[in-house]
Amino acid sequence: MRNRPKITNNIRHLRFTSNEMSQNTLANKVGVTRQTIATIEKAKYYPTLELAFLISRVFDKEINDVFKFEFEN
Amino acid sequence: MSHEEKNTILQIVIGAAINIWLILEIKQLYSEGFMEGPTAIQIWAETVFWIIIIAVVAGIGLTIIGTVIFSVIEKVILGEADYNFISDERDKAIASTGDKITLSIIGAGFIVLILGLKFGYKPIDCLIFLMFCFSLGGLAGEITKLARYRMSF
Question: How many helices (H) and strands (E) does chain A have?
């Protein structure tokens, strides 16, 4: 059976290390709703490449430092 | 709950009300005998025209009233209302799924209309069936959107 790819992220961790930034603040910085940030954090919604870059830029990180591409069995 | 999700719930309520109204209106036209004879399609067209006009105007009005009611409920329950009216990429992706369902049902209705006419069903019955496919398709699309919003959490 083909492995299903999964995109995980450490946005929650990065928010807390950035002066405990709220989901709402991050959402406002990248122009989406708080609910979208919440679903991205839970890996229930995969953002577009544009949004992924915007989120990475807020934390001053490379996209690979924020998002990880994994295979799950 | 995002603005688009609240709007989806409102559209389901409005869509369900319009569907019930359509069923009652068409049922009355049949029982009064207006769906028989050469003027049936004209009467049907006139009825549908006014239903569309009233549904659009009532839909806009009810959406505004519903948004205000949602804000008041949020303010009472959560202490603050969410005044963020952003529609983002996730909303667009979810809307796209709902649109696919709506268009599939309308498309299926159109095929049934063609087949119905081919096999000798009355044109007025086929048109009424297509009209229901439009209104039920819209409702099914909104329900699909709400399901996708809820499955995200």
Answer: 5, 2
Q: What is the mean pLDDT of residues B7-34?
A: 88
- Contact of B152 with chain A, judged by CB distance below 8 Å, is answered with yes
pLDDT band of residue B153 (cuts 50, 70, 90) is low
Distances from the Cα of A51 to the Cα of A26, B105, B126, B131, B151, angstroms:
11, 33, 46, 40, 21
> For A54-60, what is the mean pLDDT?
95
Residues of A in contact with B91 (CB under 8 A): 33, 36
Type of residue numbered B1 = M
The partner residue sitting opposite B84, judged by closest CB among A33, A48, A51, is A33
Both tokens of B142, joined, read 């909104």
Q: Is A26 on the interface with B (CB under 8 A)?
A: no
Question: Cβ distance B3 to B74 under 8 Å?
Answer: no
Question: Three-state SS for A17?
Answer: helix
The candidate with the shortest Cα–Cα distance to A67, out of A58, A57, A56, A59, is: A56
The alpha carbons of chain B give a radius of gyration, in whole angstroms, of: 19
Q: Check if B3 contacts A (Cβ < 8 Å).
A: yes
- For residues B142 and B15, the answer to whether their CB atoms sit within 8 Å is yes
ipTM: 0.83
Instruction: Tell whether A3 lies on the interface with B, counting CB pairs under 8 A.
Output: no
State pTM to two decimals.
0.84
Considering only CB atoms, A33 lies closest to which of B88, B93, B151, namely B88
